[in-house]
Design goal:
single chain, alpha/beta, seven-stranded parallel sheet, 10 strands, 30% helix
C-alpha cells in the first residue's frame, strides 16, 4: 500500500517481516548504522535478531545508536538502553553500540551530538546520515521523544536535544527531525487496532510521527483492517 508520504506493509507478523528486511539490508552493505527506539514492539525485534537471525548478520559491520532515551540511569527499568543491552547487546558480544547518557541532561545531548559527528558519515547538507532509524508511534502520535507541543519539534539546528515533556512531567533525550529525515531509511513498527484512529491522522501528515516523509510502516492485519 502506498500513500503520498509513506509505504505501508501489512504483515501477519510485522516483527518477523522487519527482521527479514533488516537481515537483507545488512547483507547488502559493507558497513551500516542503525538507531533503535524503545518500547514493547522493538524489544520483541531485538530478541528475534539475537536468536533466530543471529548467524545471518555480520554484526562486526554494524553500529548501534539510540533514537531516544528517558532521563534515567542505564540500569533503570524504564531505560531504553537497558532493553537494548539485555535483549541484544548481551546476546551478541562485541557489537559496537553508543549509549545516550540521558542522566546528564543537556550535557549528555551535546556529547551524543559529538558521537554522531564522529561515527556517522554526513550527507550533502552536512547532517549525519544513519542507514536506518527504527521508530514507533505512541497513542498521542509521538515518535522518538518528539511529543506533541514540545520544543524539540521546532529544533532544526541540532541533531540531539534534551526535550522537556510537560504532559509527562519529565525530560527525554531525542534525535531531532533533521537527523531522522536524513537517514537512508525510516521504518515504523506498529501493532494493534487501538492505534488505528491516530494512525489515520499520522498518515495525513498530522502529529509528530506524521511529519517525517518517505517512511515505511510495518503494521499488523488487525490494525490494517480498521483503516
Amino acid at each position: 500500500m502506498m500513500t503520498e508520504r509513506n509505504k505501508i506493509h501489512v504483515c501477519s507478523s510485522p516483527i518477523d517481516f522487519a527482521a527479514k528486511r533488516l537481515v537483507a539490508h545488512f547483507q547488502r552493505v559493507h558497513e551500516a548504522s542503525i538507531a533503535l527506539s524503545g518500547g514493547r514492539t522493538p524489544r520483541e525485534l531485538f530478541t528475534l535478531l539475537a536468536t533466530l537471525y543471529c548467524d545471518r548478520i555480520r554484526w562486526d559491520r554494524l553500529k548501534i545508536f539510540q533514537v531516544d532515551e528517558r532521563g534515567v540511569p542505564p540500569t533503570h527499568e524504564d531505560s531504553n538502553w537497558k532493553q537494548i543491552q539485555e535483549r541484544l547487546l548481551d546476546q551478541v558480544p562485541g557489537l559496537k553500540a553508543f549509549r545516550m547518557q540521558a542522566e546528564k541532561g543537556e550535557q549528555g545531548a551535546a556529547e551524543y551530538e559529538a558521537v554522531l559527528e564522529a561515527e556517522i558519515p554526513k550527507n550533502e547538507a552536512g547532517l549525519p546520515r544513519l542507514d536506518l532509524v527504527l521508530l514507533g508511534m505512541g497513542p498521542d502520535g509521538h515518535t522518538a521523544s518528539l511529543f506533541p507541543g514540545t520544543k524539540a519539534l521546532e529544533v532544526f539546528d541540532r541533531t540531539v536535544v534534551w526535550n522537556e515533556v510537560p504532559q509527562l512531567s519529565t525530560h527525554r533525550m531525542t534525535l531531532t527531525y533533521p537527523v531522522l529525515q536524513s537517514a537512508g531509511n525510516r521504518w515504523f513498527l506498529l501493532k494493534g487496532s487501538d492505534k488505528a484512529a491516530m494512525f489515520k491522522k499520522v498518515l495525513e501528515g498530522e502529529y509528530p510521527a506524521g511529519k517525517l516523509t518517505d517512511t515505511e510502516w510495518f503494521i499488523d492485519e488487525d490494525l490494517a483492517a480498521v483503516l
